[in-house]
Amino acid sequence: MKAIRRFTVRPVLPEALHPLSELARNLRWSWHPETRDLFQSVDPERWAASGGDPVRLLGSVSVRRLAELAEDRRFLRRLTAAADDLRDYVTGDRWYQGQAQSAELPAAIAYFSPEFGITAALPQYSGGLGILAGDHLKAASDLGVPLIGVGLLYRHGYFRQSLSRDGWQQEHYPVLDPNELPLVPLHEADGTQAQVGLALPGGRRLHARIWQAQVGRVPLLLLDSDVEENDLGERGVTDRLYGGGSEHRLLQEMLLGIGGVRAVRTYCRLTGHAGPEVFHTNEGHAGFLGLERIAELGDEGLDFDAGLEAVRSGTVFTTHTPVPAGIDRFDRELVARHFGPDAELPRIDVGRILGLGMETYPGGDPNVFNMAVMGLRLAQRANGVSLLHGQVSREMFSGLWPGFDPDEVPITSVTNGVHAPTWVAPEVFRLGARQIGAERTEDAMSVGGSERWDAVGDIPDQDIWDLRRDLREQLVVEVRERLYASWRQRGAGTAELGWIEGVLDPDVLTIGFARRVPSYKRLTLMLRDQDRLMELLLHPERPIQIVIAGKAHPADDGGKRLIQELVRFADDPRVRHRIVFLPDYGMAMAQKLYPGCDVWLNNPLRPLEACGTSGMKAALNGCLNLSVLDGWWDEWFRPDFGWAIPTADGTATDEDQDRRDDVEAAGLYDLLEQRVAPRFYERGQGGLPDRWIEMVRETLTHLGPKVLAGRMVREYVDRLYTPAARAHRALSPDVARELSEWKARVRGAWHRVSVDHVETSAAPLSTAAELGATLVLRVRVNLGDLVPDDVEVQAVSGRVDAEDRITDATCVPLKPASGPDDEGRWIYEGPLSLDRTGSFGYTVRILPTHRLLASSAELGLVVVPSEELGEGAGVLMR
């Protein structure tokens, strides 16, 4: 008989054990080994059965056992120490509070993301974007950065994955009960659950309650639409992560952005938390938050344009996708229907809203509303997530800044990092603690600092090798258990699974490959030459073994076919002891997989991997990277601690793509056969693989401090959050109006601005000039209705290519020397230094300038000389 309703009955904790509840509800336990050990000691069997989830553990432990613990003095001492430690962690000063410029730092930052990967006990993530967001919150907590996280609570989370007998991906959506998760509802002062609401077309409303997860010092607010006040359709808005059609996704993103701002305001009102001065949009899904903030300012008397300037000043936008296809785009009519007088934000003109997301640039679709485009237009500061991705993003979005070279597009980069306390195996931590002390090791993993990581250089080779072997052996045990469970799900009987006891060998070179399965990540590149792969797997002296995991999006049949192809190869009795595919990749599996592998493989189509943080997590455990030079590996690769798979970039057709895959797969095989495997199996005089161990040591000492989420968050604070807070404070309502009026005046007058004449003190251009010479540049410009304070006239010079394009440019402002004449023309002058040999050229340009602009490209306006001026883009030396 089936129950019509399900709920959880929790035992009442004895008073002496009350701190257990506080410890369970703060997700710091997910990266704090001592707290996890404490919960394990409550009931080891139930701890294992709960999947290491304290909330589930406390919901299942017997009353008798709780009574025993309440009388156990040793346990109570441990409990008191853990509770005191958490209290000190949450309330004490940390890195952020110790900064000399603390008065300039933002009082609070709101961080919006569609998914958060904090712990497997809170399954609200699908892949790298969510794991990055979770690591961002954890590192902010460790550093004392006053972040408020904002997301959605998906009742089915992301799907669970299994395989059919023939290797086809199956999806399952378990129902999550918030009361069984490490969450608490946010309550109003009268005890009712706090809610936010959105207006929908036709007079309907979308209600959502606010749940709170506590991530160390950082509150994470999650919105849940499965409430009684909603009709059935609205209750399902937060059903699945990245599920449903266009309107479903639009409603999710409106709830995340608009409802998220309202949730933050509610939280700050109820708790007294400082209101955010900076809003950080992690990818475009939450971009509507800017519209809600403009509407808030409208209630305070600012018109749309002034409100836009005020909102932009305090907004940071991070783009994670290197391809247009990865961006959410909606039909403009669908968006228009959900805004305006009969729906949400009725006091904002729908045309202004649409104008923020329209692809009004060459190659764009004017009938499409692009969430990333809106995100960029609503943020004064934007960044990609690695140096290469920043470059790709500047090129991809350059249409928003016409007239500027891609390298001048105002999108910077902050390379992602990973939260070491989450991803470093306890055994690795203990080895570091033995070498430099537990406190210094914890500090190194949270704050960074190369001097702390240098101590790894003193760890004996034997200790490193014993650790690597131990971690590999643990992975072998884990893989066999998971593989057995998978085959049982696929319908295999116990009698036919005896072979699993021989799967993998703790003394064989182990390679890991685990990630989402879109086509560009090339799950099956290793299968391009199956005979050659078999030879590598079965080599009599230097075999390799490969552990693979990953999920395809439920709607991506192409990705599912790739998984099936890989699974069918791995099912072959000749190699199934050397290559395995593990379904249902998630955080719990990853935390075993990264430490246990010797080599982490990554072979995307360059440059389509924005960052690729899985290799960072592996590196922190002493695993070496074997990767295409893409994302973070392109930035930090050195042959001292890994290998670069050669690439054949620049292909266009399907035939070219096949050839590229063949070439790069051959390069992968060559590296494995000729360099990676020989180095792993080569033994020195002491019987150890000395050169391999040295690469492990180099990985830890040189990559360790770089790949930390603590380093990443500090960069966000210094380079983006603090300047955004400063700009936000500068834009009082009057100043915001001034700036918006100035921009309107400049845009209205810009069509009359021109460069009329350019001359220098140089000899004729056919004559070579000498290095070190300085020319006087004289330029006549027409500013129309503008004045010199509105513009900057620049000389732009540098080396030129075969088409006379200036590269590695230097920009020098010129000064007004006279004017205006009767026609409004001004003369500007300034020096032009010939500081480089070879082909050298120059031009001039006019840009808008204002003290409150974050970039000279911000307005997307620039005037350069017409080609008729000739010398205006002159080449001086060849």
Automatic annotation (TrEMBL):
Phosphorylase is an important allosteric enzyme in carbohydrate metabolism. Enzymes from different sources differ in their regulatory mechanisms and in their natural substrates. However, all known phosphorylases share catalytic and structural properties. This is glycogen phosphorylase. It comes from the Bacteria. PROSITE patterns: PHOSPHORYLASE. SUPFAM superfamilies: UDP-Glycosyltransferase/glycogen phosphorylase. Its EC number is 2.4.1.1. The keyword Electron transport does not apply. Gene3D superfamilies: Glycogen Phosphorylase B (3.40.50.2000). Belongs to the glycogen phosphorylase family. The keyword Glycosyltransferase applies. Residues 13-122 form the DUF3417 domain. InterPro entries: Agluc_phsphrylas, Glyco_trans_35, Glycogen/Maltodextrin_Phosph, Glycogen_phosphorylase_DUF3417, Pyridoxal_P_attach_site. It catalyses: [(1->4)-alpha-D-glucosyl](n) + phosphate = [(1->4)-alpha-D-glucosyl](n-1) + alpha-D-glucose 1-phosphate. Its cofactor is pyridoxal 5'-phosphate. Keywords: Allosteric enzyme, Carbohydrate metabolism, Glycosyltransferase, Pyridoxal phosphate, Transferase.
